[in-house]
Amino acid sequence: MTTFPVTVPINACSPWVDGWDPPYVPEIFLEANTPYSFRATGTWFDSGFGSGPQGYSSTNVVLRLAERWRRVPAARWFMLIGTVDRDTSLLTGIGAGATIAFPKSGRLGCFANDVRTMYFNNRGSVMLTVDLA
Fold first, then answer.
1. What are the pLDDT digits (tens) for 26-63?
2. Which of 10, 47, 63, 94 is close enough to 58 for a disulfide, judged by CB 3.0 to 4.6 Å?
3. Total domain count, the chain
4. CATH no. for residue 60?
């Protein structure tokens, strides 16, 4: 059971931040169909390019061509993304803030939207606060 509000770091170099893999963070359990408020602050870095949790648009032709390989192609580079129990059908953009009610209960999982094989060149983190809406 999670006591809200709760604040955790979301590391840019981790493909999943949900308490299962290092670096370990407190697990955040969400109840189905319950609205939660998500607020994120800070700066993380994509190969030296700084961004907030809202992410950034493609700044050159190479990034535009690579957009289809982002984990969530329709979301901006480095946008904070969330889901429940690593369910890729529920991937939702959180960015700097959102109110979301996921359709199933489970453990919140988050990541910076990047190409799956490129997390090695990321660094920094944003702080995510989750509360009942």
1. 899 999 999 999 999 999 999 989 999 999 999 899 99
2. 63
3. 1
4. 2.60.120.430
